[in-house]
Amino acid sequence: MKIKLVTGAFALLLITACAQEDATTKEAATPVITGAAIADYDDALGDENFSILVGGTRIGHVKVDRAGDAVAIDYDFKNNGRGPTIAETVSFGEGGIPVDWTITGSTTFGNEANESFSLKDGKANWTDATGSDEADISAPALYINQFGSPYSVFIYARALLDAPEMTMPALPAGQLKITEMERLTAAGDAGDANIITYAMTGASLNPIYFILDDQSKFFAFITPGFSSIREGYEGEDERLRGLAAQYGAERFAGIQAKVAHHYDAPVRIRNVRLFDPATEAMTDPVSVVVSGDRIASIDAAGADGAEGEVEIDGAGGSLIPGLYDMHGHMGENSALLNVAAGVTSVRDMGNNNDVLDALIEKIDAGELVGPRITRSGFIEGKSPFSSNNGILVESEEEGLAAVREYADKGFYQIKLYNSMNGDWAPALVAEAHRLGMPVAGHVPAFSNANAMIRAGFDELTHINQVMLGWVLEEGEDTRTLLRLTALKRLPDLDLSSAPVQETLDLMVENGVAMDPTMAIHEYLLLARNGEMRAGAVDYVDHMPAEVQRNSKVALADISTPEDDAAYRGAYDKIMEVMRMMKDRGIFIIAGTDLGGAFELHREIEIYQDMGFTAPELLKRATYDMAEYLGQDDDLGSIEAGKYADFFLVPGDPTADLKAIKTISMVSRGGTIYFPSEIYPEFGIEPFVDAPAVSGE
What we know:
Number of strands: 32
Distance between the termini: 46 Å
Strand content: 25-35%
CATH superfamily of the largest domain: Metal-dependent hydrolases
Strand order of the largest sheet: 8-7-6-5-4-3-2-1-15-14-13-12-11-10-9
Number of helices: 17
Structural class: alpha+beta
Oligomer: single chain
CATH class of the largest domain: Alpha Beta
Radius of gyration: 25 Å
């Protein structure tokens, strides 16, 4: 399924309102365009066209038509069979401030976009997916939209260029700031362009990187995997995305230098109780001694410490082995937040391989903090609906070559995807197994879960991929949003029917595991515009204003009472199937596909509704996942000789699983982190204070 923020409309990139400056940015130069020249500047811009690219593949466009003081924007892309279709009209007032902004269309997963903003006589009014609001405005302010195109960043930037310190209040809350990064030259069909890269803060948990030319015209919006670039300059895509990766790495390296505690002496964590996966219970109070990246010993609570030790007072709290998110798509932006949430290991289920390799290299070198990453080799078939990641193949022979390439590079497993021809699966699975790699994946279009089980899949990914085979008609194409919207058919499904029982029997007989990604299904099926989604309730009050706002936005188009009932019924039916799987002994794997961190806490919390107890789930998300990946000699429990991957919470999560959501300390390979120091870097209010430390 794979939700990534860059695959939504622009505002889904804008998920918070923190206003911190990137530590790596440079002093800003005097802007070329000033407020006095805005009118002439607009006339000079003319119409503009930009290509949307993912990993170098063009998947859509942004087209800007200009008429007087207004622009019309056509924004459309499709990747992995889905994407936004958005139309915007924007009118501007003095200083390039938007005074009228309408946004209509549909978002990546089909939610209706019907957003409007107006500013007149000092009164701002807006309507978005959360409802309507207003504010009295006494000074220039910029409205942060929910569903706009990447061109939104230019609309903000051109006003900010002439603002004091290039900073301006934002609506509904916060402030926006841009800072110049560096000046470069880009080559294209129209000749060399002098360009300036910028970072925008105040609209996201992390800076947003974009590029203007030396006439302050929009040139590009860039992330490590996604870009919107001026037509004719697409050949610069890889280099410019590399800049986004570089800036992000520099920012996170700066944070790492501030928040990572590398003690030169052994660290003794006193007065803690350990979760023991073997007994699924908490131990009596003990002291845990860490030396280097491993646990040196588990001592009595009152044992004397050696001279020179650093001591951390656990204050009677619980020490829990590091959690695993078994369905991630890792990037720098999520790496640190995962560790702060106690997620010290992630199985990456498909990525831009070069980007992932660079991230792992930086984490292993200690330049960035991030979880231990287990790589899955992503193989997708080429089609108009392809997910443009990993290796795309057009034949069984190319698929076999991709399997061998991943094996040569040391990937743990193979993941097969939607557009791959299902008829190739038996050969690819056999080759992967010959090379010692398990196989997981989606059910390829026009196939079903039974066929993939018979082909030798070791694991099925996403519960909808299994259940669609029970409700689809022959020839229906799951490379489109149908793989989500067809879930509306589930309420009428008879779970005692032969097709359902045959699939479950096959899974049991063949030992096939299930990676259901329940948190994303809860989000998809139960989130409603204007209502706080269940998965965010326990942490959202600590988030910046824009995160809180966007936690009240649905993914799907659920605009009628009939759809509302059907989607709620679909979720209930999915939970019934998950209980059946648990009761049948099918191994259930905890993964999110939502970036991990807080979402992993919710993922395993949902499993309580399947009949798991809190202790069982702590074991499942720690030791069981380490054992499943063959990493239990080093990870999964707190024992002498194992890696020092664990986290400290004041409460007892065996009694109340929600206790894992208030983490005071994390050890990732012996490097100590205090979330109370990390979260302010993202505009997040800490959940609990750091423990007392002595002997530093």
